[in-house]
Amino acid sequence: MDFFIQLFTDPVGFYNQHELLIAQIGINALLAISIFVTFYSGQLTLANAGFMAIGAYTTVIMSLYLPTPLPLNILVGALLAGAIGFLVGLPVLRLRGVFLAIATIGFVEALRLGVILNVPITGEGQGLKNPSADPLGGIVPILISVPILTYLVWRLTHTRLGQAWAAIREDELAASSNGINVPVYKMVAFVISAIVAGYAGALETHINFFVDPTEYSVTRTIQILTFAVVGGTTNVIGPIVGAIFLTALPEIVRQFAAYRDVVNGIILILVIIFRPQGIVGRGGLAIIAPRWWTRWRTRERAAAAH
Amino acid sequence: MTQQVLNAIFIGSIYALFAVGYTLVFGVLDVLNLAHSAVFMLGAVITYSLVVLHGLPFLPAAIIAILVCGLLGLLIEFVALRPLRRRDAPPIAALISTIGLALIFVAIVEQATQGTLFSWLWQDGANSVRFPAGTVPNPTYHVGGLTIEGTKLGILGLSVVLMLVLGYVMRFTQVGRALRAVAENRRAATLLGINVDRIFASTLFVSSALGGLAGLLFGLSLSDISPYIGRDQVELKGLAVIVLGGMGSIPGAVLGGYLLGLIEVFAFVRFGSNVEAGVAFAALFLVLVLRPQGLFGARLRERL
Predict the structure, then answer these.
(1) Potential cystine with A284: which of A9, A148, A280, B74 (Cβ 3.0-4.6 Å)?
(2) Which of B99, B107, B278 has the CB atom closest to A114's CB atom?
(3) Can you give the residue range of the structural domain that contains B194?
């Protein structure tokens, strides 16, 4: 409860005291956006942790060995994640459902155990020290990126591209018989998701002094999946709300912090059974929204329909 | 080298035993039960706790642990699967709800230390433990330069017998026919008077009991026991095994288990332990991409 009281009465003190938590929420929100894009196009891919690793390692290795400025390193990390996403997507995106999920899990672990732990430049099991770590300054780009990317992806879902994704999600066969090039649109979603995950991974190194290979395992991907499922994937706000809620929860109820995975598991099961559309799903906010808001939304929709 | 192959066969038996449970549920319910690895871990943890904390002899402890794991299978069915089936949810939803249960199981063991709520189950938190020496008699044989431990030999024998029994049940008994009918077509099976819900519940019970057995055998002679043995040692390797063998195929899972054991040992001998860890996933990835019906040509599933 103190948590909320401080948030409203002393926001500056709150920010100073919880900087790391806020940064982590921001990173997790970016990851939630990343998984949202593939979810929205109807694909359960669990490769996000792998793309994070690519973004993170690229950035840190560039800062270690090249004189390039940090923003460029981060950008290269994100783009390289996208490029590898394209190469991985070529064979993998032909799979569907559970098989796609398993193949992407295979990618994450093969990357971590097969490549990262065996290539000397990644520091192998030891991880890498990050020369450009700046925990306080690192929060700023994170806090700027979250709203920008949220807005971009939200806009994207309202373009033809987004409509194509939605069509593929609802019925792939129908989408393809309506002239939507399904493989191309799936690939676009997968690559965008990879770039965002790589970007989040790169930004995360900025606030950490150390890159640790154990961070990029399937466990991480499953955590990201939880954000999307709990928040709901009807629109991009859902996964972000999920990320904020689940990241802040252990701080809010300190007495359960040790049992956070028990709480997460219970929330996950309850949501998937009783609220499959997530906390913020169709009509999700209607439970708590004031009546004028609902009325205004209805009028908006009616106007849009005409 | 022969010694290595022998070790591959022992570890392969565990993989096979674990993967048979995985693939059984997938074949019959079309659901990937990701809580299976947590049940595997609990099989080892419960046996350890009965032997060390409660002073039971090994055999009754093992039997109780296997039964409890079977009951956990029923818990998975009633909590995570049945409500979703009632709603006709997509299979992905069930995959996610079993992830939820796996998180809960692992976290409960991981947080259990002396004086906490679950200290009757586990007192070592996130640490690893071993069965005290002499829990089971373990004579060591030396045959032609090979070292064979009695427990490992027992594991091999037990797994082979169990898998033969399972194969017999699936092939030649009324229950097995009902199971295969449900796997083939749920609706038609219902119309033929098969109680589908009961079949699902018993599938989960058998699958989880096998998973728990695999876990306790693994903890007995091949590895330490910790809350993470399921997640880190077999969860994803089990996926690799059932993909290698063809999803939903029981003989495929058995062959895939031994095959993965061999692949890993060869990778270890040839390239060292770092590569050994990644080779399962490389194999998984390649098979899914190149031959998604599995190496042994199980029929192509329609959703693929």
Answers:
(1) A280
(2) B278
(3) 2-290
